[in-house]
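Running this now, will post back.
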Amino acid sequence: MHWLTIATREIKLGFRNPWAYSFLVLFALFSLALLLIQSQNQISGYTSTTAGMLNLILYLLPLMTLLLGSFSLTSEKEEGGWQLLATYPLNTSAYLLGKYVGLAVVLLVIISFGFGLSGVLGVVVGKAFTPLTFALFLFLPPC
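Update: finished.
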């Protein structure tokens, strides 16, 4: 259960990182911009907005993942957290699993907030995606 402790620590540190909030704002702005584009369109189903959302996930999500992951690892090394963790009876697989789960939770919150904000505003405007579409955006990996 050491990985759970590492994951909890990673979640706390992930939300202290100012880059996480800048990515959250960026993702929300892109989602809102795509919602604005969709509100001009009268076609239902698979539209250019749906393709735009998929492209947003395809390009922005790996970029966010790489940057937040690298910031997490370099801050561990620079701030001395790695040296402290090296003194504990912790194996590498538990450390990596905890880091992975913690960063995955942070990224899922960022994505959920961005799509959730555009979903709520879409309901208010009357041009909302279906809940199934949002679930597909959240839980299907980009190809």
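The chain has six helices and no strands. More later if anyone needs it.
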